[in-house]
Amino acid sequence: MMLKIGLSTFVSEILCSLSAVWWLIYLNPADAVNCQGIWGMGIAYELKKRLPAAFRAYKEKCDRAGTGVIGQCLIIPPQSSDYELKDGLRVVYSPRSWVACLFTSTGYGRKNKAKSNPGKDRPEQILQYTKAALADMRMQLEGFGATNFDKNESWKTDDEKPGQILAVKFNSGAFGVKWELTEALILETFTGFERPWFIFDRQIPPEPDAHVPKPRSPWVVPSFDD
Description:
Blueprint: E1 3-6, E2 11-16, H1 18-23, E3 29-34, H2 42-50, H3 52-65, E4 73-76, H4 80-83, E5 84-87, E6 90-93, E7 99-105, H5 123-142, H6 154-157, E8 165-167, H7 179-189, E9 197-202
Parallel strand pairs: 2-9, 3-7, 3-8, 8-9
Antiparallel strand pairs: 1-2, 4-7, 5-6
Helix pairs in contact: 2-3, 5-7
């Protein structure tokens, strides 16, 4: 069961369980990334494990352009080897995922000269790059043309287009930027956009109470680091 909290007419926040958060990976995830070709934590790490071909496309972009991609968005279309899973002589199809990589920080974590990692950028820089990357993302999405909202016909015309945008509260994990600041940029940049955003957030369990039975299984709260 998920609880929707409306933020605007085109951005909604969804409180959900851990399993539902990982479920978004199989749809159209958008996430903040670094320019070093590293998906090492949180949703990015799960994407790397479950969509290895998409990760390779991201890493190749970083290897070619380096820090030149900062403030840009890389939209990776579904990669056949990620959704055509061979099971013996059969081909089992999993959902086709579009991935939007928002390059919001040059590096990640602490500065490490040995790995040529400059470390994560300052929050004000990350917000500047986020604004540019979101604008680039919208421009690219609009380039796919208007969405066909007829459910009976859309599969014919929109099968090769990304749909609704799903994300966790990116930038607020390892990059250390307050979510409200990133959220404000989404609202500013995507006003009037036809495709909706859905922001997934972990559902925090209630505090233990003497009158409430203790759950049999402990809650597992994911780390939403970039």
